[in-house]
Amino acid sequence: MIFETDRRSVTEGDVVEVKWQCEGAEEVKLTIDNGFRSTDIPLETSGNKKFRLNRSKGKTHLTLTVKTEGKVHHKTVDVRVKKMPTVKADTVDSNGRKLGFLSQWWQKGLTNWHNFMAKVNLAMSALPERKQVIVKMMALLGVMLIVSAIWPKAYNFIMVALIVYLAIALLKR
Q: Model-level pTM?
């Protein structure tokens, strides 16, 4: 039984070529065990195949199992799979200048805010108009409760703002 790989050490995502030759074999299978799951692949008695080794717990075990005259023979080749190095990219502005920490933080915050508001607007558009007003009032009352807990004098201001909002909403209809 001949069983070999072209490389014994690869980086995640690299391709390994496996070659085998089993004269007079009744059944041949290759088992690939990357530490997360194991996969069996039926094979011809001889040949070669290429496999991409993506995910592994450090080593991927390639085991050739051959059944000949009622006996089972195994041969295992271990391939060391190194983690793909992480690439850290710098955030740049439209002129190609590297952004500082605060600028990156601000840009990320704005992106998250716009994503959140897009989801809220989509959810609101699915509601009937009367329920939209109720949801807006509930959100305003929630903000009012939070702000008045932190700053009690804001309670009166927020109540006036709520009354003005409701008056405008009534006058529009």
A: 0.51
